[in-house]
Design brief:
Elements (H helix, E strand, L loop, with lengths): L1 H9 L2 H9 L1 H10 L5 H14 L2 E6 L7 H21 L3 E5 L10 H17 L4 E3 L7 H15 L2 E6 L5 H10 L4 E4 L14 H18 L4 E3 L3 H13 L8 E5 L4 H9 L4 E7 L4 H9 L2 H13 L1
Parallel strand pairs: 1-2, 1-8, 2-3, 3-4, 4-5, 5-6, 6-7, 7-8
Helix pairs in contact: 1-12, 2-3, 5-6, 6-7, 8-9, 9-10
This protein binds dihydroflavine-adenine dinucleotide.
The site of dihydroflavine-adenine dinucleotide has 23 residues, from strand 4 and strand 7.
C-alpha cells in the first residue's frame, strides 16, 4: 500500500521539483544522499572516516540507455577512485553492472568494470559489484569470478531472499571471493525467492553463519537488529576476531545502531550514494520506513 503510494508520488514532477529545490527537503535528502557531486561525496566520506567508519561510494544511476552513458558512468567511477587515492580514503566503490552497460554488451561491460578493478587494485582498494534483479545474477557472478581470478580486488553480493543463494555462497567461498550478504531489494516472484520475510530472515542467518565459518572476509549488510544480535553472538561464541569481517549499512539508516557497532569496536562500512540520479534511490529509502514519509508529508504541508 505504502509502496504503491510512493510509486505514484515518485512520478509527480511537482514533488521532484520540491525535493530538488526546497531547503526543508534538503534536510531530508541529505540524510541519505551525500549530494549530487563527487566533491560533496568526498567531504561526507572524509567525515565518516574521521569518525571511524569505512565507506563505499555509490555513483547513483541504474540502467543506462546507451554504451556511451555506460562509459560516462565508468569515468565517474574512475574520478571517484582518483579521489579515494588522492585523499587516502578508507573506501571502496560499489557499482551496478546495468550502469556499466550489461544490457547492451557483456564484453563492453566487462571492459568497463575491468578498468575500475585494475585501478582499484593498483591503489589497494576494491570494487564491490552490487547485485540487481534475478535475471542478472548468473551474468553478474560470472563477471565477478572472471575478474577475481585475474585481479582479486572484487566483492560479490548475495541476496538471502533467493533460493539459489545457498549454492552461490558455496561456489563463491570455494573461489575465496569475498561476499556482501544482504536480504535483497527487488520485487521477485515466488518461483525464485522466498515470499515470506520470516523465511528470508532465516535464510540470511543460515548464510551468515556459513560465511563466518567458510567465507573470505564477509560483509554483513543489514540494519536488522535481531540479525545483528545473532551475528554478534556467533562472533563471540566462535572467537572470531573483529578484523576478519565487517558490517555494512546504508548512509543515514539505523544511525543509533551504527554508532553502537562502532563503539563496540567492529568495522562498519557505510554505503554512501551521490550523483544527479538520486531521486529513485531516495524514493526507495522512503518506501522502507513510514516515519520518513510522515516527515516528508509534514514538510510538504509547511511549504
Ligand atoms: P529489514 O528490511 O528487515 O530492516 C531492518 C530494520 O531496518 C527495520 O526496522 C527497518 O525499519 C530498518 N530500515 C530498513 N531500511 C530503512 C530505511 N530506509 N530507513 C530507516 N530504517 C530502515 N540489495 C540488493 O538487492 N542488492 C545489493 O547489492 C544491495 N546492497 C546493499 C548494500 C548495503 C551496504 C546494504 C545495507 C543493503 C544493500 N541492499 C542491497 C539492500 C538490502 O537488500 C535490503 O533491501 C535493505 O538493506 C533492508 O534490509 P535489512 O537487512 O536492513 O532488513
Amino acid at each position: 500500500m505504502l509502496r504503491s503510494l510512493l510509486l505514484v508520488l515518485s512520478r509527480q514532477p511537482w514533488l521532484r521539483h520540491w525535493l530538488e529545490t526546497s531547503p526543508a527537503a534538503e534536510r531530508l535528502t541529505s540524510r541519505f544522499i551525500a549530494g549530487s557531486s563527487i566533491e560533496r561525496e568526498v567531504v561526507v566520506c572524509q567525515r565518516l572516516n574521521a569518525d571511524g567508519y569505512l565507506a563505499t561510494l555509490d555513483h547513483l544511476g541504474e540502467s543506462v540507455t546507451s554504451l556511451e552513458e555506460a562509459e560516462r558512468s565508468r569515468e565517474a567511477y574512475l574520478a571517484a577512485l582518483d579521489q579515494i587515492a588522492k585523499l587516502n580514503l578508507e573506501a571502496t566503490v560499489s557499482v551496478k553492472l546495468t550502469q556499466l552497460g550489461l544490457d547492451f554488451s557483456e564484453a563492453a561491460c566487462l571492459a568497463n568494470v575491468e578498468c575500475l578493478v585494475a585501478r582499484a587494485k593498483s591503489m589497494g582498494r576494491m570494487v564491490e559489484i552490487d547485485m540487481e534483479s534475478s535475471p542478472y545474477v548468473d551474468r553478474t557472478l560470472a563477471l565477478v569470478s572472471n575478474l577475481h581470478a585475474r585481479y582479486g580486488s572484487v566483492r560479490a553480493v548475495i541476496q538471502a531472499y533467493l533460493y539459489r543463494s545457498e549454492s552461490d555462497v558455496q561456489n563463491l567461498c570455494g573461489q575465496s571471493i569475498p561476499i556482501r550478504l544482504c536480504k535483497g531489494a527487488y520485487r521477485e516472484s515466488a518461483d525464485v525467492a522466498f515470499p515470506r520475510k520470516k523465511d528470508v530472515d532465516a535464510n540470511y542467518v543460515r548464510l551468515m553463519f556459513e560465511l563466518f565459518d567458510r567465507g573470505t572476509y564477509p560483509a554483513i549488510a543489514s540494519h536488522d537488529e535481531k540479525i545483528l544480535d545473532r551475528a554478534l553472538g556467533y562472533v563471540r561464541e566462535r572467537n572470531i576476531a573483529a578484523d576478519r569481517f565487517e558490517f555494512q549499512m546504508l548512509y543515514g539508516v539505523g544511525r543509533d545502531l551504527q554508532r553502537r557497532l562502532l563503539a563496540a569496536g567492529y568495522r562498519l562500512r557505510l554505503y554512501v550514494p551521490y550523483g544527479n540520479a538520486w531521486y529513485p534511490y531516495f524514493m526507495r529509502r522512503l518506501a522502507e520506513r513510514p516515519a520518513n514519509v510522515v516527515f516528508l508529508a509534514r514538510n510538504l504541508l509547511k511549504n
